[in-house]
Protein: Transcriptional regulator
Organism: Cryobacterium ruanii
Amino acid sequence: MTFTQILPLTDISGVSPADACSSPLARTAIAPESADALARSLKALSDPARLRIISIVSAHADQEACVCDLTDQLTLSQPTISHHLKVLVDAGFLTRAKRGTWSYYSLVPGSLGSVAGVLAAV
Amino acid sequence: MTFTQILPLTDISGVSPADACSSPLARTAIAPESADALARSLKALSDPARLRIISIVSAHADQEACVCDLTDQLTLSQPTISHHLKVLVDAGFLTRAKRGTWSYYSLVPGSLGSVAGVLAAV
DNA sequence: ACAATACATCGACCAATGTCAATCTAAGGA
DNA sequence: TCCTTAGATTGACATTGGTCGATGTATTGT
């Protein structure tokens, strides 16, 4: 078997060989597209006002809050709060339900936990 | 007992009364300072390049990677990668160790999981 | 001592983001 | 019908953030 080659210990199938300074791999890294998607989700969450909005919503027994709950507790203008709500809806963390004059925002079940899970696995 | 008052069901001790449109609370929301701190951590993570850096580092068997591992895999200039590394070190997700000519970056154990845990509890 | 290499820092630039005042829209109440 | 209220949208503005070229700083090899 003169063609048999002993691979360096740092080689893992499908992973390109590393530089001299590099150490062995235990697994492959996250795919660029996955990193993009996760970054988009995290970006939607990485604002103090938006985190407080999510927290206020999920603090309600029915996981639903109206905008007045938010304007009461956040020291931000109404348009700014409305902007943050839009960001969270677009990112898939909240849903909007209009009933009469009021808008109610609900937490999308599992959306936060999903991001937390993916993050912990990065 | 003419002084006894029946509190509305929406009242929870220490929580200010809600508007007419509001629903009952199950707990209190996150404190503003905690939201600030969590937002800072998440902001450090909410970039595709930085997520990939963390992933590449933790993909190594010893949870350590040199900068050349990163410049190989990320299509970004060396100063840009250096910038992202600084952000992650400042945020407490990575530590730097210089050995000879090379800089090695390691994952701070538990830092990612901690953020994920706090996030899931928001 | 000198050249080369690895990486950090600096300065500049453009894009993205958070904020608010002003305005618009729709739903209720008089 | 008209006024009021709740909340979304628009436009402008200042700030932050990602990127790179140029430069600085150690460290290694000759």
Q: What stands out?
A: The beta strands of chain B are 64-66, 94-99, 102-107. Helices of chain B lie at 32-45, 48-59, 67-73, 78-90, 111-121. Residues 21, 43, 47, 49, 76-80, 83-84, 98, 100-101 of chain B lie near DNA strand D (CB under 10 Å from a C1'). Chain B has one domain: 32-121.
